Amino acid sequence: MAYAMMLAAPGGVENFRRVEIAPPEPGPGEVMIRQTAIGLNFIDVYFRTGTYPWPVARDLVTGSEGAGVIEALGEGVEHLTIGQRVAYTFPGGAYASHRTLPAEQAVPLPDVITDDIAAAVMLKGLTTHYLIHHSYPASPGETVLFHAAAGGVGLLAGQWLSARGVKALGTAGGSAKCALAAEHGYAHVIDYRAQDFVREVMELTEGRGVAAVYDSVGKDTLLQSLEVLQTFGTLVAFGQSSGMCEEFRISHLARASLRLTRPTLFHHSRNRDWLLKASADMFSLIASGRLKIEIGQSFALAEVGQAHVALEARETSGSTVLLP
């Protein structure tokens, strides 16, 4: 029986409940997918808790990436076929065994990319793509800092930056996570639990600082991230896993004529040409072995509450996959 993990109100994981549904009918321009794997991301926590406003005035099915098989086509869909394997990243609706999706957001999967890898990498991999190619396109020979280096995006970024000839410094919590990040392209990983990352970065760069900081942590790191930037450096703030930094002021950027950007994946991915090209770049790197995808843990979709608890407690590493 088809089912979804629904939320009746913003709040804790106890609000998740399993609800049986009929497989939805696709509307014009949509496809219906039987999902085989679903990705877990911190944006799901933001929606669950109400940090991000709910896009509907009713029960919410959150989740933003997955993979599966097309089982029905809506009117006007001609570039996809029933039985085709696809993956996607799209806000909302992923925590279900079956879902509809705008056909323009469905990316055909090459045979060499398995469903679990696709579900683990669509949001995180495409996030990494826009971060290092668009938000701050790091150049060979530059040094940058990437927070949460042992997370799903962080492990991809370390490898991708290294492949571009960029020296990537990372931060992670605990020796095990630092070791994991070091195996994925980082030149040096700082244990933020035991070390002052500002002091360490300035020592590692001989006082010069870094060209850019990629920060998805927020409250715990953002102001300190500004301190390690070179003159005209760029802070790429793309999340706030520790909460919003209420103390930040635009005047903080005047310290060294700094730049700040707050990009969002879905502003990039709604352009299908970008979506297909960035996905092809990512799949090619995975197929060649230059980009290794770490699925650190998996949960049954019905156990999504436990997965959220582990993610919020920073007890996960790499990507987490939910299995319907």
UniProtKB/TrEMBL annotation:
Record bears the keyword Cell wall biogenesis/degradation: no
Name of the protein this chain belongs to: NADPH2:quinone reductase
Residue intervals of the Enoyl reductase (ER) domain: 11-322
Species assigned in the record: Phaeovulum vinaykumarii
One GO cellular component term noted in the UniProt record for this chain: cytosol
Any one GO molecular-function label of the UniProt entry: NADPH binding
Keyword set, alphabetical order: NADP, Oxidoreductase
InterPro entries (alphabetical): ADH-like_C, ADH-like_N, ER, GroES-like_sf, NAD(P)-bd_dom_sf, QOR-like, Quin_OxRdtase/zeta-crystal_CS
